[in-house]
Amino acid sequence: MPNIRHTPAAPTHTLALAAGERIEAHRHDNHQIVYAGSGVLAVTTDAGTWFAPGTRAIWVPAGTVHAHRAYGHLDLHTLGLPVGDNPLRLDAPTVLAVSSLLRELILAYTRDPADNSPERHRLSAVLLDQLRASPQQPVQLPAPTDPRLAAACALLHDNPAAPRTLAELGAHTHTGERTLSRLFRSELGMTFPQWRTQLRLYHALKMLADGAPVTAGAHRCGWSSTSAFIDVFRRAYGYTPGAHNRRG
Fold first, then answer.
1. Which CATH number applies to 141-246: 1.10.10.10, 1.10.10.60, 1.10.3720.10, 1.20.1260.10?
2. How far is CA 98 from the centre of its chain?
3. Spatial CB neighbours of 163, under 8 Å, sequence gap ≥ 6
4. Edge-to-edge order in the sheet of strand 31-36
5. Rounded to two decimals, what is the model's pTM?
6. How do strand 66-71 and strand 140-142 relate by DSSP bridges?
7. Three-state DSSP state, 138
8. Tens-place pLDDT, residues 114-156
């Protein structure tokens, strides 16, 4: 990522971003939690993209070069934490589940960053306790480095609804089916179907954030039926695509 901006301390604040707006590549000397009160947040590093609707937050460790992108109107909440405050001992970007209580703690803590009262310090302690109890979620789209795998993934990005098989992708990229299957596992840590599901969910989240109907998201992202899409979406994020659209 070129033109990397270095900000010594990750700020604790709220920020409104319009649909499609970006925060270019930068890094902080402390840890950061980023949370979307509305819209969908994508955090990208050289290793891939992590994406989070309102039931998820993203942990960004100190020193990680990352960029943000908004899908839909994004109400972004960021919390900067000292290097010593790493409740889950995470050294890579990670998506965390956000309970109703943790959501309210994040919103309250970022409301007035200048507040240095004892009450806010106690709020911080409770927030860290809730983070320790937050399960990690596999909501990441890893980025390939092998040129053969990158070419295959690009074809899927261009048309996530296309029912391409590994054999078809191999024919387009002049790569054997077994080789592609091995590369998905070794480079991306997922099988081909698992990665494609993450890709389709990623595109569906972007579409829903931009106001697309649920049926359009299902069709354009490759699900055989709207009900199948709703089922996969609910299992991934804990609520339905229709509820996602109503979050605003």
1. 1.10.10.60
2. 13
3. 222
4. 13-17, 74-81, 31-36, 56-60, 94-97, 136-137
5. 0.80
6. unpaired
7. coil
8. 888 999 889 989 998 898 888 877 677 888 999 999 999 999 9
d(CA 189, CA 17) in angstroms, rounded, equals 32
Q: Residue 116 is inside which H or E element, if any?
A: none
Q: DSSP labels for 26-95?
A: EEESSEEEEEESSSEEEEEETTEEEEE-TTEEEEE-TT--EEEEEESSEEEEEEEE-TT--TT---S-EE
pLDDT tens digit sequence for 93-103: 888 888 889 99
Domain boundaries, the chain: 5-140, 141-246
Read off the tokens for 139: 């909501």
Give me the CATH code for the 5-140 domain, please: 2.60.120.280
Tokens of 150: 């990158």
β-sheet bridge partners, residue 218: none
| 191, two tokens | 């099988």
Could you tell me if 43 and 11 are in contact, meaning their C-beta atoms sit under 8 angstroms apart? no
pLDDT, residue 78, reads 92
* pLDDT < 50 regions, the chain: 1, 248
